[in-house]
User: Which sequence fits this backbone?
């Protein structure tokens, strides 16, 4: 059972595991370029690493894992690259959904699903439905996700419900985000050494610790994951106190 933020803060010591770990999987193209390979080779290597890290995160006891796969800004890439990515994501959702169910991993999608290719939409929806009762870990895959877009969609939902302005609270806004019902993010990790958040979970990550390892995502193996957890243990979290 995923606990609320308030309960987590009271029960967990500062050096425990992050209950909600979010990773920006960056550096696939640069990894491929460094090896004189086409970008799609890097993305395929990245997907392979995604599977390994999902399984390892579950083994280590992470309860919520969010992976940033494709942003609302990534549509500006070449049509060839975008199409290749959409095919990879679609295959991923279709191929691994049953494995997630067997392992107790609940699959969720973050982002605006309506703009994704129809087949990808169907595969995502099937994966979410198949794993909806899984309780051991929640896996959020952010595809066509942007923090500002998410906030805009949340406000639109509230307006559609005809909720009076005086009754709009912080809790209400959070309850209308894609991550509704989940604890806030404890740790945001961006691989490849880039030190910016790029429109990723701006509300959920308000008090998240940040970490920017220089390793490209395809090289972010179990050892790097362990180093990440060790880094989190060093942090003193005060939440404004």
Assistant:
């Amino acid at each position: 059972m995923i606990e609320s933020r308030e309960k987590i803060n009271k029960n967990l010591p500062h050096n425990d595991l992050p209950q909600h770990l979010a990773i920006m999987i960056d550096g696939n193209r640069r990894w491929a370029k460094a090896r004189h390979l086409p970008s799609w080779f890097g993305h395929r290597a990245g997907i392979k690493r995604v599977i390994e890290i999902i399984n390892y995160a579950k083994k280590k006891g992470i309860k919520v894992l969010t992976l940033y796969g494709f942003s609302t800004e990534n549509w500006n890439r070449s049509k060839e690259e975008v199409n290749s990515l959409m095919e990879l994501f679609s295959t991923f959702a279709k191929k691994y959904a049953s494995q997630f169910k067997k392992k107790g991993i609940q699959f969720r999608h973050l982002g605006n699903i309506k703009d994704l290719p129809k087949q990808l939409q169907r595969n995502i929806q099937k994966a979410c439905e198949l794993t909806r009762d899984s309780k051991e870990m929640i896996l959020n895959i952010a595809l066509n996700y942007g923090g500002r877009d998410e906030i805009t969609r949340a406000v639109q939902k509230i307006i559609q419900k005809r909720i009076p302005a005086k009754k709009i609270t912080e809790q209400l806004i959070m309850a209308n985000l894609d991550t509704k019902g989940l604890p806030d993010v404890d740790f945001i990790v961006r691989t490849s050494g880039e030190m910016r958040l790029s429109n990723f979970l701006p509300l959920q990550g308000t008090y998240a610790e940040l970490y920017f390892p220089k390793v490209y995502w395809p090289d972010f193996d179990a050892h790097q994951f362990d180093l990440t957890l060790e880094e989190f243990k060093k942090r003193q979290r005060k939440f404004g106190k």
Remarks:
- The chain is about 45% helix and 15% strand.
